[in-house]
Amino acid sequence: MYRISLILMLLIFVTLPAWAQQGQEMKQSDSKKGIPSGWMIRFDHSSASMDNVKFNINGGTYHFEAGGREAAIYYKPDMTAEGGYSYQGTFTQLQKTGHPEAYGLFIGGKNLQDKDQQYLYFLIRQDGKYLIKRRTGSDTESINGWTASDAVKALGSDGTSTNQLSINCDQDAVKFMANGVVLKSIPRSELNYIDGIAGLRINHHLHVDVKGLSLNSAD
User: Fold this and answer.
1) What pLDDT was estimated at residue 27?
2) Which positions of the chain have pLDDT values less than 50?
3) So what's the pLDDT on residue 19?
């Protein structure tokens, strides 16, 4: 009886590392759930979870559904630009939120998974306002605070709105545009974080589709 018990204990001891390794692999696999191939995500809050996010690409449409603490940036590390370029996409908010939540484009991304992350972002929200800010680490700096514009389409009676956003960078200025209208033109010499990764920023509680996402060199 003693020998049988000893053998059983040895078997458990030998197989335990395999169980532990399998559990680790499953956890690593789960951490990538919901992210299309080649894409990465960084949440604002450490408590955010991919369980509360839906992100998929169907043809040329990028679909996002974000939970209550899942404000984040989405990007492909090899989607970079420098010098003269334009970056654009058409955003459709599919559902009204209880509080105006922001979404849009970012450029000049660097160290996006590190504590010293940096990027420049251009956002709109359902009340027809736009914002331009710069992030450095956990700090953000307002370049153009929330500003109302007739060029930004506010949410309609059906609870949806569609806006084409673009950031055009040339040697002299960076132009932030909505539906073909320049909302703000800032001398390039006054801005940091222009060259680098380009991506999307989607705040929490939002259901948003993005079409026509393109990054084009001006050269």
Assistant:
1) 26
2) 2, 4-32
3) 29
Instruction: Report the length, in residues, of the chain.
Output: 219
- The DSSP output letter for 132 is E
Per-residue pLDDT at 34:
66
According to DSSP, the residues that pair with 196 across neighbouring strands are 81
What pLDDT is recorded for position 88? Answer: 98
Q: How many Cβ atoms sit within 10 Å of the Cβ of residue 169?
A: 22
Q: Whole-prediction pTM value?
A: 0.84
Q: Can you read off the two tokens belonging to residue 153?
A: 């389409």
Cβ-Cβ contacts under 8 Å for 142 (sequence gap 6 or more): 131, 132, 133
- Per-residue tokens: 173: 């200025």
Q: What is the pLDDT of residue 35?
A: 87
The 85-93 sheet, strands edge to edge: 53-58, 61-66, 207-217, 85-93, 161-169, 173-178, 181-187
Structure tokens belonging to residue 202: 């989607």
CA 61/CA 46 separation, integer angstroms: 28
User: What's the number of CA atoms in the CB half-sphere (13 Å) around residue 32?
Assistant: 8
